[in-house]
# Entry
Amino acid sequence: MSEHTYKIVELVGSSKESSDDAIRNAITKAGESIKHMRWFQVVETRGYIDNDNVAYWQVTIKVGFTVGE
# Structure
């Protein structure tokens, strides 16, 4: 593995389906403007309740991407 320098951004993704989909949605959308993403870390998971049911999930993640490539 070569040496890299990373920058970290924090994102919040949401989904009506699952926390995994919320993560995927955040990474997919970020990929439109952030290049060379390498890893993510889940920071927080939360949800919204409506009429005694889970209405949607929100997941906060930190995404690391390489700089200088």
